[in-house]
Each structure stands twice: as C-alpha cells, then as structure tokens.
C-alpha cells in the first residue's frame, strides 16, 4: 500500500530538552520561541481546531440504539500540534542554512491522512506531509552516522513505549531486551540511523536558536513514525545529543 511504504520510510526524530518560557505577562499567549519565530497559542488553536473539525466521523456500530454515542476523542492533542510546529520550524532552518535541495517526491497529504486519522485537507496533515519531506531531505544530505549503544536503546525504549502505551496498540518490539538483543533485532535498520541524523541536526539548531517552550508543553518532542506489518506507529523520542552517534563518513 502506497501510504504504508511512505510511512515506512519516515525517520525517527528526537527532541532536545528545551528551555521554558518565563511565566510572565510578556509571554502570555505564546507557545514557543524558535529564534526570531514565535509560535502563538492562537496558531496552535488554529491547527488543532481545524484538525478536530476535519476528523472523519466513525460509523455507529451494530449495537448502537437510540442513545447518543459517546463523543470520540480528538485524533490529535495540542501538545502534538506544538511538537509538530516546533520541529517543523527547526527543520526548515536546518535545510535553509545548509542549502539542502528540495525533496524529489513530495508527500501527498491524502496518502497519509488515514494513518493520522485526520482529513487530508486539514492543515495538520499538510504540515505533517511537509515534515516528512524535510526529514527525508535532512537524512539524504547529512553524513551517515553509527549508533552508539545509548542511541540504540533510546530508539528501542521509544518503540516499546509506543507499542504498549495505548490499549490495542500493536507491540512493535519485545520489551526487556538487552542492547545486544536490540542490535540483533534492528540489524541494519535504516530508520534508527536516520533517527539520529535528523535528531542531532534539530538538536544543534534548537541550541543555536535558544528554542524555548511554554512550560505546559515542556518537554517538546518531535513527532515520529515507523512502518510495521501492523501499520505505522507514531511516537516521540526525547532529544538526543551528538554523543549518541559516531560519524563514519567524514
């Protein structure tokens, strides 16, 4: 399935622990600062409200009677919107500053809408499509790295958490494995290597721009996805420092 192949190529992104905004009057209504770019609460609401409004309605089950069905939970949270907006801004800056080329085959929002459970015409899905493209560009234009044991386990722990965090979520990988077992399970998994490539790029940019977030959104994490036989799994990693990789291509 085209959507599955596209999501299977998504790199895993990590997020740095960022400074928090001071809770003063001058910061009222601000969700985050990335350099000279301000992400306001109004902007977060704009993306969030649009995503909720454009969530496909589920058909009532056979057991439905005349009683009103309970309201479905929104497919996206305000935290996820902030994660996406901050990560996008950092990635845009990385690509621009390093003069990286545009992605060869842009992601079509309609192809990832079902996986995100939001309408393909929503801004949230369109931003996600841009986010995937930026990840691809950074991965293809950054020297390859070798994962340290710490890096391997960061990725592994996030996968385990994602697979067991929600009822009915597919278990991505067996929990409780040693680093040797994880390396054997991962093999030559490109997604883990790509995770570090993008994570260290975004981390360096966050530090350079002195990125700060509102305490209620702290810690910010970059949204991630990886394709599995059960379908794409969406999850987050904390930011990883450059110390979890070894450059093998210089």
UniProtKB/TrEMBL annotation:
<protein>
    <recommendedName>
        <fullName>Lipoprotein</fullName>
    </recommendedName>
</protein>
<feature type="region of interest" description="Disordered">
    <location>
        <begin position="54"/>
        <end position="76"/>
    </location>
</feature>
<feature type="compositionally biased region" description="Low complexity">
    <location>
        <begin position="60"/>
        <end position="70"/>
    </location>
</feature>
């Amino acid at each position: 399935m085209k959507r599955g192949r596209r999501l299977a190529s998504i790199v895993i992104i990590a997020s740095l622990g960022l400074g928090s905004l001071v809770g003063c009057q001058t910061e009222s209504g601000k969700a985050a600062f990335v350099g000279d770019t301000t992400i306001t609460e109004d902007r977060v609401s704009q993306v969030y409200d649009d995503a909720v409004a454009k969530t496909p309605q589920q058909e009532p089950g056979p057991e439905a009677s005349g009683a009103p069905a309970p309201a479905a939970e929104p497919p996206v949270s305000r935290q996820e919107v902030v994660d996406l907006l901050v990560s996008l801004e950092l990635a845009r800056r990385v690509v621009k500053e390093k003069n990286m080329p545009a992605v060869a085959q842009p992601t079509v929002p309609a192809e990832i809408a079902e996986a995100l459970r939001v309408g393909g015409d929503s801004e949230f899905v369109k931003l996600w499509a841009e986010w995937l493209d930026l990840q691809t560009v950074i991965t293809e234009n950054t020297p390859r790295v070798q994962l340290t044991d710490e890096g391997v386990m960061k990725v592994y722990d996030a996968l385990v958490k994602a697979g067991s965090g929600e009822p009915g979520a597919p278990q991505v990988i067996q929990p409780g494995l040693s680093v040797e077992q994880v390396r054997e399970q991962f093999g030559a998994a490109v997604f883990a290597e790509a995770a570090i490539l993008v994570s260290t790029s975004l981390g360096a940019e966050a530090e350079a721009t002195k990125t700060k977030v509102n305490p209620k959104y702290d810690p910010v994490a970059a949204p991630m996805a990886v394709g599995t036989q059960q379908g794409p799994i969406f999850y987050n990693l904390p930011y990883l420092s450059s110390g979890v990789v070894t450059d093998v291509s210089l």
